[in-house]
Amino acid sequence: MGYSVFMTEQITADVARAFQSGDMAQVVALVENLPARARDSNETALLAYGLALHSLRRNREAAAALRQLVQLKPDVPEYWNNLGITAQQACAKAYAVVDRIELPGMQVRRDIGARR
Fold it and tell me: Residue 13 belongs to what domain range?
């Protein structure tokens, strides 16, 4: 059974309220209940999900959510910052995470940090 637009909007509003109240476990549960197609194209849900996972110290999962957010909205510098911090805290090299992102029309220097 699919979600209606109204149900998706209602869950997004619930996610925002849970995030504002500091209930990060509830944020995660709500976002995980969204259909993948609705979640992966929902800026608010991806941002709240990534930040909630990060606050719960689930940094690898948070980095994956924030990576999706950066791919959805590559022009928002704060999202890149969140991804970099989260990736670093997940004990991954930030440039290795960025290296896997493919964005149309954007070239990423892949030799940064390489040893000569």
Answer: 5-99
What burial letters (b/e) apply to 33-44, b meaning 16+ CB within 10 Å? ebeeebbeebee
Query: For residue 74, is pLDDT > 80?
Result: yes
Residue of 45, 66, 43, 37 lying closest to 54 (CA atoms): 66
pLDDT score recorded for residue 98: 58
Query: What is the total count of domains within the chain?
Result: 1
Query: CA-CA distance, 64 to 100, in Å (whole number)?
Result: 11
- Domain CATH for 13: 1.25.40.10
- At 103, the pLDDT band (50, 70, 90 cuts) reads low
